[in-house]
DNA sequence: TTTATTTAAGATAAAATTGTCTTAAATAAA
DNA sequence: TTTATTTAAGACAATTTTATCTTAAATAAA
């Protein structure tokens, strides 16, 4: 469904957010230990999310990554997905046609419309805050 | 959403089916001209679908690919997708956890459940016949 | 100011996916 | 039987994605 890069990105953000709720900045090494992902690759992905403003970072000793607490409920999953994978999962044709619309649809066009709309709605309405709270309360996990 | 291999496979099957409705066997060269895909790669994919019984083939002059007319409504899109991409799109964890279930869910587990169920239902209930009829009647297209 | 720590950035490498090419096998027609 | 045509199968190559490695920049503490 998503690329590995997006999977790592989502998990990293959820972990960072869960720690930011405790006023803790986290280093990339701590992040990957908690989400079971390759460190350098994850660092690059989180770095891209810093550039886009989803995460904040401080370099040097006592540095690390964190997320502004009051922004956690404004940042939605769709922001992370589109920042890494782009929007082709929502807008591209399910059968790979360069163009595909209601006028000249691919054979599966109308079959996909609802499912994609539902996926988009879900990602649009799911905040980092919500997922980080689920993790912190033990309702969900990031590795096993 | 799907791999290129699955995209090509679905389009090839729809085209072959649309021609089988006219009692026409089609060669791989004709298929790729109508779905705009690389010929050797497509041949390999369609070959895999032959092995699995979704398509029939005859080698040699006057040979080609065809689909049993009375099976077209029994073959569903899910059969093509799982034959090529496997079932990870339905069963795997959305965030890539090796295991993820109601007992120990990833943070997005319940968010994904409905969307994946809908996707599966759609692929389960969509037959080759239905899509090939849409193509033949001009309601849908396979390239542009 | 020096050193240690950490993120930033970009080059390089490995793996997976996508795509091509060659040869073999089947089969129909001449 | 020979030839031409077509699918079958597998080796090979290119591209994309995933992952690693190296160096630079920032910054805090000693």
From TrEMBL, chains A, B:
InterPro entries: TR_Rrf2-type_CS, Tscrpt_reg_Rrf2, WH-like_DNA-bd_sf, WH_DNA-bd_sf
PROSITE patterns assigned to the protein according to its UniProt record, in alphabetical order: HTH_RRF2_1, HTH_RRF2_2
GO cellular component: cytosol
GO molecular function, one term: DNA-binding transcription factor activity
Protein name per the record: Rrf2 family transcriptional regulator
Species in which this protein is naturally found: Algoriphagus aquimarinus
Source species taxonomy: Bacteria, Pseudomonadati, Bacteroidota, Cytophagia, Cytophagales
């Amino acid at each position: 469904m998503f690329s590995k890069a997006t999977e790592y990105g989502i998990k990293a953000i959820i972990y960072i957010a869960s720690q930011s709720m405790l006023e803790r900045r986290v280093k990339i090494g701590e992040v990957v230990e908690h989400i079971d992902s390759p460190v350098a690759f994850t660092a690059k992905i989180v770095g891209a999310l810093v550039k886009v403003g989803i995460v904040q970072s401080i370099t040097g000793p006592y540095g690390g990554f964190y997320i502004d607490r009051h922004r956690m409920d404004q940042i939605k999953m769709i922001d992370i997905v589109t920042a890494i994978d782009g929007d082709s999962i929502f807008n591209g044709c399910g059968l790979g046609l360069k163009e595909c619309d209601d006028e000249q649809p691919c054979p599966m066009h109308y079959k996909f419309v609802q499912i994609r709309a539902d996926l988009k709605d879900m990602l649009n309405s799911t905040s980092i805050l919500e997922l980080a709270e689920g993790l912190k309360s033990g309702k969900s996990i990031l590795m096993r």
